[in-house]
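Example 603, ligand adenosine-5'-diphosphate.
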Amino acid sequence: MADIIQLLPDHVANQIAAGEVVQRPASVVKELLENAIDAGATSIKLLLKDAGKTLVQVIDNGKGMSVTDARLSFERHATSKIRNADDLFNLNTKGFRGEALASIAAIAHVELKTKQENEELGTHIKIEGSKVVSQEVITTAKGTSIAVKNLFYNIPARRNFLKSDTIETRHIIDEFQRVALAHPTIAFLLHHNNNEVYHLKESNLRKRIVAIFSAKMNEKLVPINEHTDIITINGFVAKPNFAKKKRGEQFFFVNDRFIKSSYLHHAVVNGFDGLLEHGTHPSYFLYLTVPPNSIDINIHPTKTEIKFDNEKALYAILRATVKHSLGQYSVAPVLDFNRDANLDTPYQFQSKTNGAVPKITVDPNFNPFKTAQQPAFTTNNQYKKESASWEALYTTDNPFDDVQQEELFHQNTQTDTGKTFQIQKKYLLSSIKSGMVLIHQSLAHQRVLYEDFLANITEKEAASQQLLFPVKIGFSSAEIEIIYTVKSDLESTGFQFEEFTKDSVTINGIPTSITESQVTKILEQLLNDIDLEVPDSSFSHVDVMAKSFAKTLAIKTGTQLTENEQENLVHNLFSCKEPSVSPTGKPTFKTLTLQEIDHIFNS
Ligand code: ADP
Ligand code: MG
């Protein structure tokens, strides 16, 4: 029988390898940025089109490549960064596998322009699916530009697998932030579809964090500095009172490389030692420097885990350092010795000229029932009465039988019956023919508001109230990007935007169902919810938005309701299409039949 084993052609091998290195546009961004840093660049530009699906281009002013190196750089296992296995244990570069460019060139249209400092002319190479289609001499600036176009053009399955532009953009921004935070002394520019997203000047760590995460961040940062024989720790943790509901801004860097470590995370949280409110997460930006030979970085290219030689000691040092620094801060809260006076002035100035922005407060006792014309609760009563929906009540899968459904609905459409009681400012209890029903007031109201919003959005009514004075709200550029991508959905709920800048949005119209004082909270909650949605493939902005609004605006546990308000809520709940679950899938009520009650008492 003939031999059947063959060596795979290079372009096939590269395509297979690419599957590991390049999962999405953000992977390309990471590899190209890291190459630019390894090349000693002091200024790096990242240009994107369509969330990187059409173009990812990185332009650096690093050392460039010779003609031969330019050509070789696209070969697999071609690297200038290590020569032998020993070098693996003394890495000072990001790359070392020599795989990235070969992989990227196998699955995209790649254009390289590069020139070394002492050379007159540079090299221009075009590669498509691992094939060099042209190589020319060009005049170009010192450094390297690599443009990666039409990612996965030859692997439709992978291309189709990419997520929405919003999600892919966020992955890219994540990578960009990690690299930019690891290298505050390098200037970075990020443009997306010709809009400037980040313009980060060469600076120090504190300023870099502030430039990325908005001005608000400056006052939150507590400096961390610790030097021991086995590790140096620098950076900042955010004061505990600024801890967030979402796990956003948590960054570890080891020898300037972003890593994830639940073990070290635990050490930091432990260092907060009871200072964190339950369910909140501290922000931190911690830079660990260890001898290169005490870590094993020989990991999968896209993974961010790392192994340390002396994990236990690192844990103890980290925990103690965080604790110590926080202690210092709470003893002397004003003594923030790393403070940079230049940073403070503009914000104070800003808040003076635009007093409305920081003054927005959210009334925690806000009760949408209190004013009769408060539409969050009333807009759709009309709609509900008309369309709701004996039919809907019967056709939805509800965990209780038709008789009860009918009874519940009937009960609450009659004004003279339906006595309700509020229990612990949390539940409503109402007697029904077959027994009783216990309703969770906040979850029930979420359901009502959720259906209201969905109805509004899908009916394209978009009733909007004009604000007398437009509200300007500050956000980080990453947040602005996200708000911008859901702009039209927000508009369909009644929001009107006057202006988007790099770090603020100005709003001049809001949905009739909300009040001005709720705007900031609503948008922040929305950003948070969109953030949490990432892994979910059934991601729908409109749905997330409706859920988010409902959650923000619903009456909370602890709110006292008048009898009238209680009845309204019960009525509106049972006019919903799916009264039995909250928008996030929790039960909104439970019925207890007389039989079940009898059973309790054995009577
Ligand atoms: P690695 O970074 O692991 O070495 P890559 O495939 O990313 O592998 O890059 C291959 C080689 O191409 C690098 O080792 C480097 O010599 C060269 N190279 C890549 N990008 C640049 C750049 N922006 N500037 C200068 N040289 C570069
Ligand atoms: Mg590389």
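Summary: The longest strand covers residues 464-474.
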